[in-house]
Amino acid sequence: xxxxxxxxxxxxxxxxxxxxxxxxxxxxxxxxxxxxxxxxxxxxxxxxxxxxxxxxxxxxxxxxxxxxxxxxxxxxxxxxxxxxxxxxxxxxxxxxxxxxxxxxxxxxxxxxxxxxxxxxxxxxxxxxxxxxxxxxxxxxxxxxxxxxxxxxxxxxxxxxxxxxxxxxxxxxxxxxxxxxxxxxxxxxxxxxxxxxxxxxxxxxxxxxxxxxxxxxxxxxxxxxxxxxxxxxxxxxxxxxxxxxxxxxxxxxxxxxxxxxxxxxxxxxxxxxxxxxxxxxxxxxxxxxxxxxxxxxxxxxx
Amino acid sequence: xxxxxxxxxxxxxxxxxxxxxxxxxxxxxxxxxxxxxxxxxxxxxxxxxxxxxxxxxxxxxxxxxxxxxxxxxxxxxxxxxxxxxxxxxxxxxxxxxxxxxxxxxxxxxxxxxxxxxxxxxxxxxxxxxxxxxxxxxxxxxxxxxxxxxxxxxxxxxxxxxxxxxxxxxxxxxxxxxxxxxxxxxxxxxxxxxxxxxxxxxxxxxxxxxxxxxxxxxxxxxxxxxxxxxxxxxxxxxxxxxxxxxxxxxxxxxxxxxxxxxxxxxxxxxxxxxxxxxxxxxxxxxxxxxxxxxxxxxxxxxxxxxxxxxxxxxxxxxxx
Lengths: 301, 319
Hints:
Chain A is an all-alpha fold. Chain A contains eleven helices and no strands. In chain A, helix 10 (251-258) runs antiparallel to helix 11. Chain A is elongated. In chain B, a hairpin with a 2-residue loop joins strand 1 (4-17) and strand 2. In chain B, helix 3 (110-121) crosses helix 4 (127-140) and helix 5 (157-169) runs parallel beside helix 6.
């Protein structure tokens, strides 16, 4: 074959270059070359830094933070984003609130991904009766309007951040279960699965080494998009007073605490948490879209 | 050519469907000797791939073996349990598929595929050793060892098909089933691939069941040819006698419908009619509605498949 005509120097160079390439490396390169994905990553990084560093850099105790003399002050040098109805600095609360939003996003997507993913994987791989059982339960969950379901769960278990995460997580379970199942169903019909069966690979290994890795990219994309919607869900529940309880600075709760003061012209109590929610969701959606493109197997050339 | 590797006796494969049962392989008896290449030819849908999958016991449901026996190295394949079947695959029987573009897991490196195959059957081999074997193997197949850690999408179609052969060779399987191995390769790559396959076959005395509709590929590689029509075996014989003097009218038609660059358009004969509906096969000889030499007997009685010359069998009332 003609390959042998390469000089040894050429092949060693080729070898060195190729050695450092992996599928994830390629995907990362594609991701970082997309402007939208970059914008998403910048927004999420800012959010992450705020969430991780705020408690370290600045101790904040929401219980003692109020100075009624400074109520509803517009943005100024002292309070960059102004103060709210209890005289609390909006920017400080906003930064400290990032922690709750991210936490809700990660935990509830985690619940949905873990439970839904495993159920979907089993339903798709085992099939028959188990598939029917699992998917009908998922259909029942999906039959409830999602917001109503979340409200019902929180109402039963009591308001609070933990129950918000559980409620949003439960809402995500059928979404991930359906996605995982549909991926397994399409991947297991692929020729390379038959080929692996043909060389005697065990069923267990086929599921975990051949099917599971190939289902990951849409699941990663869905998780990223899910983080955005989880934040929105948490804010919605917070706004209804079912999420994080005051005085803790959750963004949705901040909105619900202060929307009444918009009539008095205090826009700065409303716009920052609203914008923070929007930006966080936007950031995750941009990243999710970017991931979808970067992980698309058709682009693996 | 001592004892046969595979002996198929009166094998039936059924596909039960809502509107009836399709018998995709009907009473096929066939032996494959050690070290021979047996070409299995026929039109699309005649049951040749089903026969291959039945040998691996990998029929897709609802397909099932409805009768007959398959002996592999003297053991009846139809009596094996799940785990025995799994160990048989890859170790004793390997398969090379039609489309190398889709037969390799896109997330696994070439080395992962080979190492997995080796270690599935030889768990005592260390990863390092298996890797060394894999490197040796792809070198023998004419792929640079530097490409051992490439992903499938970094390889050309011909290279991938060679990797597939490598998977089949990794454990010195007693039988390699090659189902349309060159259909998705272009002619140049196909020629190289066939050359390689022939070299390997001679070097390792491989036993290959070559399933194809490409008469040229069969002529290139096979020692013997079996012709299938509508789920039945119609003719079997050594490759050159069979191609030079086909006995069954179907074989004759099949050979005549191969385009030849030296013939003008007028000389290419296209067989009229279509293969029968297997839900409802015609009575008598299944080829009779398309046969130019049809006799009354053909419409009523099914011709038996029997040896008419030494090493030459045919199912036709003409002989």
